[in-house]
Specification:
The chain has 404 residues and is α/β, with parallel strands linked by helices. Helices cover 36% and strands 23% of the residues. It contains 13 helices and 15 strands. A hairpin with a 5-residue loop joins β1 and β2. Bound molecules: (2S)-amino(hydroxy)ethanoic acid and manganese (II) ion (MN) (2 copies). One manganese (II) ion binds next to loops.
Length: 404
């Protein structure tokens, strides 16, 4: 089975027919269907599969523990109404690259693994790259178990309902000790490769970025009778903060938006009691990011006080800047050059499990051209020819790293 068939089989799983976007959230029915697809596809390639203590999936060519494995993979979960490629492209390409190497008679000198990390988007439990953070010890298991989704369901309960023993979650040094290198292929979430006329690129790093939850508390009241001077309306400081975030991003050479907001209780004819908003902010370096977020919080506090409301901020998820392993990056570039692929080197503001794993093992990334750059949207797209170029590039890198 090649890339196109594997892709076609996964494509409908978890897609919302109304929006065309994906709703693949960890430990839900679409997630279970994605897991079943992963196992089925691995079986067609004679790969042994396992689910680790944190819920991450692994498919092995050779056995982990027989020397430092070369692992490739990505994630199967999505943001709400995300696109088809963000995550799954890396996993389908991984399986297709293994299939290609096997059909060419390649015999790896060390195990090759395909991994699917859980909750990379943090769309259900709020923390990005949760599966790789747990495996590397980058998040406290107890704190993770108490994370709750929008319906108040904890990660612990969601795992238990999915038949997993939530008490086992946590760092997995033994598993990672067997991994010599991790290379993640991902659709580019930007259009640098399109501008450069290149189908494949190599990542040199990931911007520091994070997610901050801002809670504005006011006083519920009647929308049609309460005098303006008597109002404590949390929607007003929230609105000021949205604008301030854009301003701070422009001033600090960063990126920021508030893409998720909830007004409680959400009645059209009532002044809400509270507004909960999530800021996503990123910048080329941590000093700029600190400055950016500091300005947003200062604006939020000032607006909250001006409107007789209160504001509380929590850092929900933070990822430090990453520079990928230079030796691995050069090795990847050499393997691609040897097959005639010249891949530009790019930075990215998008977070990835490779960025988390880089703290423990040499990690690198390959990007596949995204003609419009659009991502985290049903409009996300990559051309079939570029997807095949990504498979060829990944196969070349795996063959080089796992060669006899
Ligand atoms: O949001 C991100 O940076 C990534 O797409 N998870
Ligand atoms: Mn994403
Ligand atoms: Mn992704």
């Amino acid at each position: 089975m090649g890339f196109a068939e594997m892709w076609a089989e996964l494509l409908p799983v978890g897609r919302d027919e109304r929006t065309g976007g994906y709703r693949r959230y960890s430990w839900t029915e679409p997630d279970a269907a994605c897991r079943a697809w992963f196992a089925r596809t691995a079986a067609t390639l004679d790969l042994a599969t396992e689910c680790d203590r944190n819920g991450n999936l692994w498919a092995w060519w050779g056995r982990s523990g027989e020397g430092s494995a070369v692992v490739t993979g990505s994630h199967l979960d999505s943001v709400p109404d995300g696109g088809a490629f963000d995550g799954p492209l890396g996993i389908v390409s991984a399986f297709a690259a293994v299939g290609r190497l096997r059909s060419e008679g390649f015999r790896p000198g060390r195990p090759i693994g395909v991994a699917a990390f859980i909750e990379e988007e943090g769309a259900r439990f709020g923390v990005a790259c949760l599966g790789s953070r747990l495996a590397t010890g980058a998040i406290d298991p107890a704190a993770a178990l108490s994370l709750r989704d929008g319906d108040g369901i904890s990660l612990a309960d969601a795992m238990t309902d999915a038949g997993r023993d939530a008490a086992l979650i946590g760092r997995d040094d033994a598993l990672l000790a067997d991994v010599g290198a991790y290379v993640e292929l991902h659709i580019e979430q930007g259009r640098a490769l399109a501008g450069l006329g290149a189908a494949v690129g190599i990542a040199d790093g990931i911007w520091p970025h994070g997610r901050w939850r801002l809670d504005f508390a006011g006083r519920a009241d009647h929308a049609g009778t309460t005098r303006l001077s008597d109002r404590s309306d949390p929607m007003l400081p929230y609105a000021a903060t949205v604008v301030a975030a854009r301003q701070a991003a422009a001033e600090c050479d960063g990126l920021a938006t508030i893409g998720k907001v909830r007004a409680d209780p959400g009645a059209a004819n009532a002044i809400c009691s509270a507004v909960h908003a999530w800021l996503d902010a990123r910048a080329p370096d941590e000093a700029s990011l600190d400055r950016l977020v500091g300005r947003v919080i200062e604006a939020a506090e000032g607006a909250a006080s001006q409107h007789g409301t209160r504001m509380h901020v929590d850092t929900e998820s933070f990822t430090a800047g990453v520079r990928f392993d230079a030796a691995l990056r050069q090795r990847m570039a050499g393997a691609l050059a040897a097959t005639g692929i010249s891949a530009p080197v790019l930075a990215t503001g998008a977070g990835h499990d490779a960025g988390v794993l880089a703290a423990k093992i040499p990690a690198g990334m390959l990007f596949v051209r995204n003609p419009t750059g659009v991502s985290h949207s049903p409009a996300e797209h990559a051309e079939p020819a570029d997807c095949e170029a990504g498979v060829a590039a990944l196969a070349a890198v795996l063959a080089d790293l796992a060669g006899q």
